[in-house]
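Re: the 172-residue chain
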Amino acid sequence: MKIILQQVLKILARVFIARYHPRIVGVTGSVGKTGSRLAIAAVLAERWRVGQAQNNFNNEIGLPLAILGEPDSGYRNLLAWLGILIRAIKHLVIKQKDYPEVLVLEYGVDHPGDMNYLLAIARPEVAVITAISATHLEFFGSVEGVAMEKSKLIASLPLQGTAVLNFDFSAG
């Protein structure tokens, strides 16, 4: 059931992006993603309509929910998920005038390949890497493995994209 839900959310999120054409700012890193997302969104909100996750939505379920503008997930409640899907379809049929012009999204990766999945949903125009440290080493094997996965966010940028990198952080 989770795989089906993931695929439906992925498709809906991609269609939302195609319909509304928001600019996307992607934030990743081992630490500081949420604080950075909040700060970036606060600054950008002074000029544009900004959307962001209401929770730490930064994985294969959460990222699409943030794009759909959902403040919460359906957890294990089938009716809640049905409501989310119905609202999403409604917003595709009846265009929202107040849909965000900019989405500030967190790209959380715990396993190799996670970033590829998230980038298949939404590719940013601006990518921010907060810091890289020894997290999820059981899956990546080394800090370099973590860095390689997270650097895919930068590699996905369009030619005119912008990368913001934190060179001040020391992992130890």
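Strands lie at 23-28, 50-52, 102-106, 126-129, 162-165.
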